[in-house]
Amino acid sequence: MSRIKQIEITPIAFRDPPLLNVYGVHEAWALRTIIEIKTEDGNYGLGESYGDEQTISQLRQVAPHLLGMDVFNVNAIRNKIESVVTLPDPNSGLDIAPGTLGATTVPRIFSAFEVACLDLMGKITDRPVCDLLGGKVRNEVAYSAYLFYKFERHGFTNDPWVDTWGEAITPEQIVAQAKKMIDQYGFQSIKLKAGVFEPEKEIEALEALREAFPDVPLRIDPNGGWTVETTKRLLDKFGNGLLQYLEDPAHGQEAMGQVSAMTDIPLATNMYVIGFFDIPKAIELDSVQVILSDHHYWGGLRATQELAQLCKTWDIGLSMHSNSHLGISLMAMTHAAAAIDNLTYACDTHYPWQEEEVIVGGKIPFKNGAVVVPDKPGLGVELDRDALAVLAKNYENCGIRARDDVSEMRKYQPDWKGTVPRF
Ligand code: GKR
Ligand code: MG
Fold it and tell me: What is the DSSP letter of 219?
């Protein structure tokens, strides 16, 4: 038995570029939490999760109840979390942040600890996490170039930092962004975050990407920003195999089901199937052909494998969604994806948008757009405690306590609503 002796929950903040989406614009700092579990036998395991106040307080509420528990018995840890965690008040207004819905509370909080326990199990047994998930079926996990419309710099911050990506508003600038990202990381699929401008303008960008990268699969994701009518109008333009899949075009499972009935283009979602509880309706409505899983709110790496099995049963494709994150999350995603044979699309990652790191050695390298699955014990990463202290200080000083793209955009455009669907 390997008992939990201590748990450290450290909120952090790192710089984030002014990336645009249907809700608004990213603030100058992105928040995460680093979870460190220490055992009585002197080992430590790492997890990374959301950094909003709700998640931090739930992690902190649960942590003391896990002391003394065996890191190998994650079923008991999950039951304990389920019995002690306070579910959010549905009227609190806190449920709007991605991944913080009441129904995802237990999976979201459990996931943060499960990943740290798996890291520990790997270190104790001297095996990589993917071995604990049944063994790797691939040596490298492919990620996609995740393109964003963006401002050149944040307009409302005292921080002199400016990212190196420049403005991306026009199709030409989007193509330049893709070139830079592909040159740097070797990605072999492209995803364009949409819902920012008139859809026709965004499709011009897609067409420009198709011309610049004729063999690279393309995806577009307006985050539910288009009505069913708008999507219907656009479907013809997506003909000729322009898209590998169309991600969350319309808002809600019913709307997605209506779009799905009109097209053979596979629809993907990370917004409307966010837990096992959403799957029956998705199957009933045939609203989605690709589920974009996210271990941070689906309930961890083993739950991602369970989802993969369900997807196989129902002939649904599987890939991975991402939010702004650092290397512990990237490694957790990589080990899970390495152990799932039907995870056949390149996964999403925001990783190129972040310059800072919390792990020893800094940024994780990509080779031809993929992360090599490490053979080291556990997740294969170590905590850089000096970097953690710097990022924790950022959190203290940055003043942001929950992501709020809508309010940030109102600074630029006071009448901004951030409502979905927009077009
Ligand atoms: O970072 O702006 C963003 C994304 O829009 C993110 O919040 C989404 O959760 O990447 C995500 C997505 O695929 O919808
Ligand atoms: Mg999405």
Answer: E
Query: Is residue 295 annotated as involved in ligand binding?
Result: no
Rounded Cα distance, 262 and 264, in Å: 7
Torsion from C-alpha of 68, 72, 76, 78, nearest 10 degrees:
100
Res 158: pLDDT: 87
325 is in an annotated binding site: no
Evaluate whether 206 touches 192 at the Cβ level (below 8 Å).
yes
Quick one: which atom of ligand 1 is closest to the CA of 20? 2
Q: Does the annotation list 26 as a binding residue? A: yes
Cβ < 6 A, ligand 1 pocket: 19, 21, 98, 193, 221, 223, 270, 321-323, 348
Measured in angstroms, how far is the CA atom of residue 414 from the centroid of ligand 1? 23
* Predicted local confidence at residue 104, as pLDDT: 86
- From the CA of 258, how far away is ligand 1's center (Å)? 23
For 240-265, give the DSSP string: TTT-SEEES-BSSHHHHHHHHHH-SS
Q: Which CA distances in Å does 5 have to 39, 70, 97, 388?
A: 5, 10, 32, 21
pLDDT bucket at 91, cuts 50 / 70 / 90: low
Q: pLDDT of 100-132, one tens digit each? A: 566 789 999 999 999 999 999 999 999 999 999
List domains and CATH numbers for the chain: 4-130+385-395 (3.30.390.10), 134-372 (3.20.20.120)
Tell me the sheet residues that pair with 39. Answer: 4
Please state the φ and ψ torsions of residue 347, each to the nearest 5 degrees: -80, 155
Contacts of 244 (CB under 8 A, 6+ apart): 189, 217, 218, 219, 266, 345
Closest ligand 1 atom to 26 CA: 2
Ligand nearest to the backbone CA of 347: 1
Pairing of strands 290-293, 267-269: parallel
Q: Which atom of ligand 1 is nearest to the CA of 248?
A: 14
Burial of 274 (0-12, 13-18, 19+ CB in 10 A): buried
